[in-house]
Design a protein that fits this description.
Blueprint lengths: L3 H8 L9 H10 L5 E5 L5 H9 L2 E5 L4 E2 L3 E2 L2 H11 L1 H6 L2 E4 L3 H11 L3 E6 L5 H11 L3 E9 L6 H10 L4 E3 L3 E4 L12 E4 L9 E4 L4
Parallel strand pairs: 1-2, 1-6, 2-5, 6-7
Antiparallel strand pairs: 3-4, 7-9, 8-9, 10-11
Length: 212
């Protein structure tokens, strides 16, 4: 038996620009058993390392320019870090980077007939972008698969899109959300109410209870 945090430290956190540890722990716990993975929004590819440890085939979709909500960055610099973090997986063909917009990536993967049993959404952070990503990639989700993503609560657009399009989604502190078909909606008394504050890493303070 291996300790989860030690396993992550040794196998994943050697990559630069990693996400917050609680979110990473959540993903590591739900990853086993998911072999075909689509990552929508990869940034520097540190989280991609986790996907390639579990997945037999991984596709990253990102045009590597950022967005207005989370910030823009140097495409060349970010791509260089991504490729360094994932050199072995890229070289073996296990991992493919589709350097294009989310919509273009969904269309290309659909054209190839690709489906995945885990789809990670973390590209745009404004409502129209997140809504479009969910709608574009849901048809690529294999039966029994899960769609999940980042920044629930941290960005209002993410939270709104997930609530509207994927009712019953589960929230995992700090900012991970997860949905699969058949999740029961337990009623407003079980909803998460996000109270936005300006705090480090744009994390939201949360309470559980009915929305105001």
């Amino acid at each position: 038996m291996q300790h989860l945090k030690t396993w992550i430290d040794r196998n994943v956190l050697s990559g630069s620009h990693m996400m917050a540890a609680p979110d990473l722990d959540t993903l590591a716990a739900v990853m086993p058993g998911h072999r075909r993975i689509i990552e929508v929004g990869c940034y520097c590819g540190a989280l991609t390392r986790l996907f390639t440890l579990f997945g037999e085939r991984v596709w990253s979709v990102d045009w590597l320019i950022g967005d207005d909500a989370a910030g823009h960055y140097s495409t060349a610099e970010v791509e260089a870090i991504y490729r360094e973090n994932n050199a072995e997986s890229l070289a073996s063909g296990q991992l493919e980077l589709l350097k294009m917009s989310s919509a273009e990536g969904a269309a290309e993967l659909a054209r190839r007939g690709v489906t995945a049993d885990l789809i990670w959404i973390d590209a745009g952070h404004e409502y129209p972008d997140v809504s479009a990503d969910i709608k574009n990639y849901l048809p690529l989700l294999a039966p029994g698969g899960i769609m999940c993503g980042h920044d629930a609560g941290a960005f209002e657009g993410v939270t709104q899109a997930v609530d509207e399009l994927l009712p019953g989604s589960l929230y995992y502190p700090q900012t991970v959300w997860l949905w699969h078909e058949g999740l029961p909606a337990l009623g407003p008394e079980c909803d998460v109410r996000f109270e936005m504050h300006i705090v480090p890493m744009r994390q939201a303070m949360i309470t559980v209870g009915a929305r105001a």
